[in-house]
Amino acid sequence: MKDDFAALNQYLGWLAISLWLFCFLSLLTFTTAKASTSNDYYEVYQSPEEVTSGSLLLKKEASYTNALRLDNHVDIDVNGIIAAVTVTQRFKNSSSEWAEGIYAFPLPENAAVYAMEMTIGDRTIKGLIKRKDEAKHIYTTAKASGQQASLLSQHRPNLFTTQVANIAPEETIEVKISYMQSVPYVNNQYQLRFPMTITPRYQGAQTAQTNSNSQPAPQSSPLPPLPQHAAHQVPLKVNLSIKINAGLPLTHLASPTHKLKINKNDHQYTVQLKNDAVIFDRDLELIWQPQTELQPQATFFTENIMGETYGLLMVIPPKIQDSKKPLSKEQIFIIDTSGSMAGNSMIQAKAALQFALRQLNPNDRFNIIAFDSTTRTLFEHSQRVSMLSLADAIKFIDDLTADGGTEILPALQTAVALPLTDTELSQMIFMTDGSVGNEIEILQYISQNLAPRRLFTIGIGSAPNSYFMSKSAEFGRGTFTYIPNISTVEQRITHLFHQIQNPIASGITVTWPDGLQQTVADLYQGQPLIITRKLDSLKSPLKIKAKMGKQAWQQVIPEAQLHQPANGIGKLWARQQIEALQDEYIQTNNNALPEQITQIALTHQLASRYTSFVAVAKEIVKPANKPTQSAVIPNALPQGNAYQTTGFPQTATAAPWHQLMALITALLGVLCLSWNTLRKRYEI
To answer: What pLDDT was estimated at residue 580?
Structure first.
């Protein structure tokens, strides 16, 4: 009996030690991955949506890996408030086999992509715009027949992919994308952003609960997990050139994100990166400011295309005196604490939230909601600003850590469910990197459920999902503020609160030169209005009227000043039309709208959700018996993000569970072995 008992104890002891070793090795593997910095890894992808920067992916069976990237070239030409951008990236298939590639890259959410050109070896193939299904069929047929072909598709408004078929071994590939965008004038300065990387996006597990009469929004394709492995990251060579023809002398030209070399010639400026070799791990932001006395109030440009006239109007409402008695308001702060916020983003978000609390007035009410895979609320009801409530808030913020999924919908639903107070304004301030894949579902919920509250979004981190952030603010009748790093927190939060505290420009109407009168969206102080329109004529002055607080405001642009030419306005008009129809589709799910979007995109040769660029070379170059293989290069994680946030974007990590299991099994093993030893010594 004693021998059986001893054998059982020994068996349990060794079993516990085995379990402990398993948990320890699992924890060690996880810790090693987590300790990897953003400069030390490569990535394997299940889908082009998972790509974290502009890359050429080579298809291998059911996954994609990076091909060798040689260099990158970006040309940005700014004239007035319009930027023409050409992005050229050269790749080489360093493998010894033929390959199919996918080129994935981010662009600004307001980019009008109007041209794609692919050079493979000595062949240059220009893309033609087609309906998406037709373009895909043309590409698939060419690929199967051994022809070299390329396909450019919009995956999101700020994420595009190019597929490349039949890349020969050791062949160099050049991809050239051209687009137009308007440059916003915010807080007395122009702000231009060029995205260089994409934060991996989390696909929400929850479904928005909208009213029973609503139709489900058009959905985006799902985002599967993103596995990664460690390797050495080499800085990618990028040649970036920005030419700015402001037409006015500038008092300030700088970047809060990158070091620059600036050359000036009269009112024209040439900007380059100070270091030619940089990692594509954060968005580039460039800001410039004209002399104070020359700051624009209203500017109008035109473009004539095949007898059609297109106009672009930018209006900066004048400053008004701050309210002597600040309006009583409720502010609900919603902060993202998911895994994608780990690292610098979490530090930045907490600093922004703490600074925002210091801007509150004694007659304000506030609350804080933090979310990742779960949602936590500081107070059951919004509380008055006091020493006690602020102390509770600071402790709540200090205890926040970044981990888990990005479940935005439950956080918004929690905020909406809070009882409205008797204050004059109720506002939500939402801090996140926006790294979600179900943008459309969330936008539909915002458009249907937030009123009477207003939503202000703050983009945190080096590469936030600015399409989702800006569109959320637009649907929530608020504004979007981008904070690229910790040094800009105070300035940009101060500007945001200045907007919130002061009356908006409301009741804005534009009387166009052809006589049509149009009512446009409300504006906050310091927020520009940029609107395009197709015009029948330019026979009368352009008039803008608005109500600034209790004051009436009017701006008139005389007929003589309506003929300032600018290239790209027609494409920007078409892009705005597509965006407006897409917004309407999100809100109404009207099945007639996709065809309207398609027709505009085909007419103006633009990539859209329903149109793609396709290019096919005539020659058959790939032998039918040659297989497709893959090649690998490193890819940069957004600067400041912890490694595990990309490796595990959809769930909380298992590290705490592994630690607990290791501790329990280790203790169990020690106890069992100790008991067996004591039993033998004292012959129990």
So the answer is: 92
Residues 163, 102: contact at Cβ < 8 Å? yes
Tokens 């122009």 sit on residue: 190
Q: Which phi and psi angles does 550 have, rounded to 5°?
A: -100, 0
- Whole-number Å distance between alpha carbons of 285 and 291: 20
Structure confidence by residue, pLDDT tens digits, 196-215: 877 777 765 544 444 434 45
Helix/strand number for the chain, H first, E second: 12, 36
Rounded to 10 degrees, the C-alpha dihedral 149/155/158/160 comes to -10
The more confidently predicted of residues 583 and 237 is 583
pLDDT of 645 > 70? The answer is: no
Average pLDDT of span 160-180: 86
Helix axes 387-398, 344-357, angle to 10 degrees: 180
Cα 411 to chain center, whole Å?
19
Contacts of 342 (CB under 8 A, 6+ apart): 402, 403, 641, 642, 644, 645
For the chain, the farthest-separated pair of C-alpha atoms sits apart, in whole angstroms, at: 110
- Cα–Cα dist 429/472, whole Å: 11
DSSP string, 349-418: HHHHHHHHHTT--TT-EEEEEEESSSEEES-SS-EE--HHHHHHHHHHHHT----S---HHHHHHHHHHS
Pairing of strands 123-126, 551-557: unpaired
pLDDT over 50 (residue 493): yes
In terms of phi and psi (left: phi > 0; alpha: psi -120 to 50; beta: otherwise), the region of 414 is: alpha
Q: What single-letter amino acid sits at 426?
A: S
Cα separation, 185 vs 315, in Å, equals 9
For residue 397, how many other CB atoms are within 10 A of its CB?
Answer: 19
User: Token pair for residue 611?
Assistant: 């149109």
Q: In angstroms, rounded to a whole number, what is the distance separating the alpha carbons of residues 9 and 15?
A: 10
Tens of pLDDT, residues 90-148: 877 877 778 887 777 789 999 999 999 988 878 788 999 999 999 999 999 998 888 88
Residue 611, CB-side half-sphere exposure with 13 Å CA sphere: 27
Q: Report yes or no: 355 and 479 within 8 Å, Cβ to Cβ.
A: no
Taking phi first (over 0 means left), then psi (-120 to 50 degrees means alpha), and beta for anything else, what does residue 170 get?
left
Cα→Cα distances 628→59, 578, 624, 631, Å: 7, 37, 11, 10
Three-point CA angle 669, 675, 680, nearest 5°: 130
The values of phi and psi at residue 132, to 5°, are -60, -45
Lowest mean pLDDT among 69-78, 393-402, 597-606: 69-78
Query: Parallel, antiparallel, or unpaired for β 425-432 and 329-336?
Result: parallel
- For 524-550, give the DSSP string: -TT--EEEEEEES---S-EEEEEEETT
Cis peptide leading into residue 326 (ω within 30°)? no
**Lowest-confidence segment of 591-595, 598-602, 639-643 by average pLDDT:** 639-643
Closest CA to 89 of 65, 106, 114: 106
The structure tokens listed for 28 are 């060690």
CB 369 within 8 A of CB 376: yes
Strand-pairing partners, residue 530, are 314
Q: Residue 57 and residue 32: Cα distance in Å, rounded? A: 26
CA 324 – CA 360 distance, rounded (Å): 15
Q: What is the pLDDT of residues 61-74, one digit of tens each?
A: 556 555 556 678 89
| Size (the chain), residues | 684
